[in-house]
Input
Amino acid sequence: MPHSNLAIRYNYHLDEIKPNNILTFNQEISSIPDIVKLTLGEPDFNVPEIGKQAAIASIENNDSHYAPGTGSEALRKAIADFLKVRYQLTYSPDQEIVVTIGATEAIYASLNALLNPGDKVLIPTPTFPLYETVVRMLGGVPINLDTSSNNFVLSPAMVKAALDEYGPAVKAVILNYPSNPTGVTYSASDLQALAEVLAQSKAVVIADEIYSELLYDGQHVSIATYLPEQTLVLNGASKSHAMTGYRIGFIAGPTEIMQKVSLVHNLMITSPSDPAMAAAVPCFGTETGRQASVEMRAAYQIRRDYMVEELTNLGFTVAKPNGAFYIFAQIPHQYGSDDVQFARDLAQEAQVATIPGSFFGPGGEGYLRMSYATSLDDLKTAISRIQNFLN
Output
């Protein structure tokens, strides 16, 4: 192939985008023989039987034509039912819900619909790095707010200070909870206090609640409960129903904003695939389907409790996660704070793969993220190897 000399024609914002450290590091250590991987957020459960049978029926019934751009009517109604039953949120299936290709597309479509070049987005860190990447790619300016001194929870004071400093240039605030990577979540009072501050601005909250069904103590509350006119709720079937490969996510929000989100979405993908949407309908829209995530959550909770106790005994400092399926553990002080080197040594010498905390932004330095979305036997092997490594 001839060498291209057309770099000047590229989107110059892409020059600011760095390779995904999580995927790069995971690939780097994956070739180590017999390694136990606690790296990626990939549920080890199978898709619920009710979802699989619905997908099979869709294929056998030749459900193979273009769906509405916002997603099938059946799925949008099921999502509306899910949000009402589980979180007491009311959205119109016809005007206020869009089915996306996973939460990843939901993040991109939401930000694309909101941002103009130079607009600022408040991002509490440590957090999933895709948010900052997409903001930069769209010409926005990410404003990272380090929450590590506040138990990894964004406080109203932090939001107010940022709004006072940047004013109306703040177009959006991203709130991911339960959090990737910390597993920390927000109480109803936390969210109400944040909503009171944000209501004084015109900033839109992009509430990534993809782990909402994996909350161990108490009931998940959406910030849309307190700030519905300024909130886009992002969710999906990937984590709650182990359907990562089906790529079914969704966005719900007020009609005016959703009109713009829907426009971006339709220009990007036309529509999601029919069998995947069919599989998600009973998962969201029936009690049997919703119960499947409850059973997965119970298994995750056993794993979480095991990992928190064992890592604490080994000298790690763990912010006990109340949701998702990640442990965010601070490396014992005697081993320093170079989390990248520690993770690399742990992989090469102990055959345990983790993700360095610094990959998740300010406040993550000196930590490791460990996913417990794997079997308890694998977790026990990992703990045994970590113990030998530290000794």
